[in-house]
Amino acid sequence: MPSPLETQKWAGAVDNVGSKVLARVLSEMKYGGCVAACGLAGGSDLPATVMPFILRGVSLRGVDSVWCPTPRRIAAWERLVTDISDEALANINKTIPLEDVPRYAKEILAGNITGHIVIDVNA
Fold first, then answer.
1. What value does the mean pLDDT take over residues 45-53?
2. In the chain, which segments carry CATH 3.40.50.720?
3. Which CATH superfamily is domain 8-83 in?
4. Beta-carbon count within 10 A of 100 CB
5. CA–CA separation, 116 and 106 (whole Å)
6. Nearest residue to 19 via CA among 35, 39, 3
7. What Gene3D superfamilies is this protein classified in (predicted)?
8. b/e for 4-17, b at 16 or more Cβ within 10 A?
9. pTM assigned to the model
């Protein structure tokens, strides 16, 4: 488990793992930062303290992908098209061939990968 307050690294984050990963992200948030939690792949527990919330003013927001009304979903997808430049998307997205998954898995587990990786099973 991370310390209640780690070195401040992130102004904002999206966590789709939960549990220990979410606890670490919360402990590394910069003052006034916000985390959007949208998944529980690592578990539904949250082994963390309230220190990031009280001492750094960190916010934790839940992302409802199940009951969110259609008009709100459409508006969100439209904003992604207008609010994020192609250059920014290129910097956070990476496509790799299936054969590179073991190498990238080690990098992900070591905390050396940021962004979004798509695995091209046809490459």
1. 97
2. 8-83
3. NAD(P)-binding Rossmann-like Domain (3.40.50.720)
4. 15
5. 15
6. 39
7. Medium-chain alcohol dehydrogenases, catalytic domain (3.90.180.10), NAD(P)-binding Rossmann-like Domain (3.40.50.720)
8. ebeeeeeeebebeb
9. 0.68
Statement: residue 102 has pLDDT above 90: yes
According to DSSP, residue 99 is labeled G
The string of pLDDT tens digits covering residues 7-40 is: 999 999 999 999 999 999 999 999 999 999 998 9
Instruction: Return all residues near 33 (Cβ < 8 A) that are at least 6 apart.
Output: 10, 11, 12, 13, 56, 58, 59
User: And the tokens for 71?
Assistant: 């008009």
Question: What one-character DSSP code corresponds to residue 118?
Answer: E
**Following CA atoms 6, 4, 34, 87 in sequence, which dihedral angle do they give, to the nearest 10 degrees?**
30
Average pLDDT, the chain: 92
Q: How confident is the model at residue 49 (pLDDT cuts 50, 70, 90)?
A: very high
